[in-house]
Design a protein that fits this description.
about 110 residues; 5-stranded antiparallel sheet; homodimer; Jelly Rolls
Chain lengths: ~110, ~110
């Protein structure tokens, strides 16, 4: 049975944001991103994939289109296909995000 | 900006499980399900959609294929297309689930 526990995905690394895959199919992937203070995913866009970020712990600054917003645990942010998006952990705490992409992009 | 907070989706109802939509596109929907003790979603399957359940609070008994499992907060369960799945809140606490379906099924 395919059961995972979010609390098991805790791997951080000093060199860069860490991505841990929970589930993947041809239709989507669901990852946990672990960001130390100062780490980020630069703003980018996917032409044909939607992305959702959900904050599990910590606080991150999100870029969605032309907007910026600081969000903590329980926040869910939707970046539809074509919309620029990115995330930075401004600190001081470690941050973990649940990240949905549907469908997985070509380069994933 | 499309930001939602999971803590805002708290609507339970005595007559049946409540589904609250966070985001939807042609590619997916993301809902919060609120189940009082005793409420359930009967086992069913989707021919061409994947589903993921994530327990936000409470404990639920999940059916995945031929298996049953009792899971609490932070558990993530993957029901690929074609696999029978269902969920019951055995109680005693209220339960909330984050539910991903990709793509939205024809009847959704």
């Amino acid at each position: 049975m395919d059961v995972k526990h979010l609390s098991d995905y805790l791997g951080f690394a000093a060199e860069k944001l860490q991505k841990h895959n929970l589930f993947q199919s041809e239709r989507f992937f669901l990852d946990v991103y672990c960001l130390l203070p100062g780490q980020s995913q630069k703003p980018h866009r996917h032409a044909a994939s939607d992305k959702v970020y959900i904050v599990l712990e910590g606080q991150c600054r999100f870029r969605l289109g032309a907007d910026d917003t600081l969000q903590g645990p329980g926040a869910a942010l939707f970046a539809p296909a074509g919309v620029e998006h990115g995330v930075t952990n401004d600190g001081p705490a470690n941050a973990r995000l649940l990240v949905l992409m549907t469908p997985p992009p070509e380069h994933a």
